[in-house]
């Protein structure tokens, strides 16, 4: 027991002595100055300065996330423009008075006969939502049988005439035979050749056949009463017609002829899937009155819906001669299509002579591979 106690005292003394030595060494180290570092060679200093300058330059070009403030993503300018001219909901807020007038109706009754108001909104870039709590009005005394031939006279009792000055298709035909309601006149369209500006349907079919192409599905943009679709129907080709009721019942007339009218304006995205059409025709509605930007949207949307090898037909497109050369021909050329037909002629009516206008008829073929 005495031996064990002596050993514990020795260990205690050793521990105390070690702590005292450690404290002494630490205090002497703090009081003494650290040794001077060895000098840095000049070539290393030069390399460090070069590296620092490079880092500063890269930081200036690509500032770090911490150094820059977060910014909101910018909206493409062409998208902003498209929202002003295309019939999508975002444009409706710009016309609250018209929209309020359109939605002012009695629920669970017949909808007001104001398609002209709906078209006014559509042409201003607002395609209003369907009225969900009123019923569309139809002609109560409509004929039980409709013409199967698209060139027979149209029945007057199959339409509602309250908003039109003319109360019959016969009246519309007398008012202006070029409106498309005189079936005797319409029957001769697209089948005769008077000048290089004309492209009769038989010639169109022959051109397609010579290039080993097939015409089955087509779209007629701004097709009025649907005469082109009617002529192509006789050739077993299905054509959809986009048309508006601007002053006359074009949609009703096309439907009475057994055709499919699409009630969409020129600036709307074509309601057709990508790459499915064999032919797109732009008639008299597509001309120099359309803003160039909107026309460019239209042309590229035509390219979207055309299949490889499909045809784009500009039929009697008119503009000023100088604009055709400097604006529209380069715009068309951007598509990179093959020129199957390109004919230019003077527009000889009073407006054409006054404004130096010309007609262009162009049949363009989309490349098989782009």
Automatic annotation (TrEMBL):
Transmembrane segments: 7-26
Domain of life of the organism encoding this protein: Eukaryota
Cellular compartments annotated: Endomembrane system; Membrane
Matching Gene3D superfamilies: Vaccinia Virus protein VP39
Topology in the lipid bilayer: Single-pass membrane protein; Single-pass type II membrane protein
InterPro entries the UniProt entry points to: Prob_Methyltransferase, Put_SAM_MeTrfase, SAM-dependent_MTases_sf
Assigned GO CC terms: endomembrane system; membrane
GO molecular function annotation: methyltransferase activity
Keywords: Glycoprotein, Membrane, Methyltransferase, Signal-anchor, Transferase, Transmembrane, Transmembrane helix
Family membership: Belongs to the methyltransferase superfamily.
Protein name: Methyltransferase type 11 domain-containing protein
């Amino acid at each position: 027991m005495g031996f064990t106690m002596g050993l514990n005292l020795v260990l205690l003394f050793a521990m105390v002595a070690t702590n005292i030595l450690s404290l002494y060494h630490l205090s002497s180290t703090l009081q003494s100055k650290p040794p001077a570092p060895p000098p840095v060679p000049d070539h290393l200093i030069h390399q460090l300065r070069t590296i620092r300058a490079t880092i500063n330059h890269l930081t200036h070009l690509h500032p770090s996330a911490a150094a820059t403030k977060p910014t909101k993503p910018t909206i493409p300018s062409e998208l902003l423009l498209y929202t002003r001219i295309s019939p999508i909901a975002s444009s409706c807020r710009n016309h609250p008075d018209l929209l309020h007038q359109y939605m002012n109706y009695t629920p669970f009754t017949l909808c007001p006969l104001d398609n002209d108001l709906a078209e006014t909104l559509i042409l201003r870039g607002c395609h209003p939502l369907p009225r969900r709590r009123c019923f569309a009005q139809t002609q109560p005394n409509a004929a039980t049988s409709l013409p199967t031939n698209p060139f027979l006279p149209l029945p007057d009792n199959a339409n509602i005439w309250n908003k039109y000055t003319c109360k019959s298709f016969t009246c519309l035909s007398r008012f202006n035979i070029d409106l498309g309601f005189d079936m005797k006149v319409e029957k001769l369209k697209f089948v005769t050749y008077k000048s290089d500006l004309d492209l009769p349907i038989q010639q169109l079919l022959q051109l397609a056949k010579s290039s080993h192409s097939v015409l089955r599905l087509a779209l007629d943009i701004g097709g009025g009463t649907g005469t082109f679709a009617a002529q192509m129907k006789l050739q077993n080709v299905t054509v959809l017609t986009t048309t508006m009721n601007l002053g006359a019942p074009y949609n009703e007339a096309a439907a009475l002829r057994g055709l499919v009218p699409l009630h969409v304006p020129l600036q709307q995205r074509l309601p057709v899937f990508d790459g499915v059409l064999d032919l797109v025709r732009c008639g008299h509605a597509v001309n120099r009155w359309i803003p160039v930007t909107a026309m460019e949207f239209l042309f590229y949307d035509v390219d979207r819906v055309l299949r490889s090898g499909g045809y784009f037909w500009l039929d009697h497109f008119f503009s000023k001669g100088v604009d055709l050369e400097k604006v529209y021909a380069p715009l068309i050329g951007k598509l990179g299509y093959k020129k199957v037909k390109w004919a230019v002629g003077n527009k000889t009516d009073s407006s054409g002579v006054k404004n130096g206008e010309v007609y262009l008829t162009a049949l363009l073929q989309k490349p098989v591979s782009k």
